Amino acid sequence: MPGPNENPGPPGFDPLTETFAFVCLDCGASWNRTFDLVPLLDPAGCLNPLEYVDDEGRAMHSPLTDAVCGACGSRKVRVG
Ligand SMILES: [Zn+2]
């Protein structure tokens, strides 16, 4: 049963989100980002590992490898 704040996804689709806390090791900035997790089907119909989609709709296999500090541009970012 969907709650009042959940997105009404396509039927049979269970939308998953995951929030990560990032901390920049260079300037100390911290922020959170929430990613949608999208289960992917390859052309053969096999289920691939979940893919992350950020709030701009860009797909990535892991948000942890694409973490860049928005304040100083450093890629030395710790993810909690
Ligand atoms: Zn930084």
Order of helices and strands: EEEEE
User: Percent range for helical residues?
Assistant: under 10%
Mean pLDDT: 78
Characterize the overall form.
elongated
Poorly predicted runs of 5 or more residues: none
Task: Write down the oligomeric state.
Answer: single chain
The overall strand count is 5
Query: How is the largest sheet built, in terms of strand order?
Result: 4-3-2-1-5
Residues in β-strands, percent: 25-35%
Determine the N-to-C terminus distance: 30 Å
Q: Radius of gyration, Cα only, in angstroms?
A: 15 Å
Describe, in short, the structure shown:
The chain is an all-beta fold and 80 residues long. The protein has strands at 16-24, 30-38, 51-53, 59-60, 77-79. Zinc ion is lined by residues 24, 26-27, 29, 69, 71-72, 74.
Structure overview:
It is a single chain. This protein is an all-beta fold. It has one domain (16-79). It is 0% helix and 32% strand. The protein is built from no helices and five strands. The protein has a five-stranded antiparallel beta sheet, with no helix packed on it. Strand 3 (51-53) and strand 4 form a beta hairpin. The protein is elongated, with a radius of gyration of 15 Å. 8% of the residues are buried. The model has no long low-confidence stretch (mean pLDDT 78). Zinc ion (ZN) is lined by residues 24, 26-27, 29, 69, 71-72, 74.
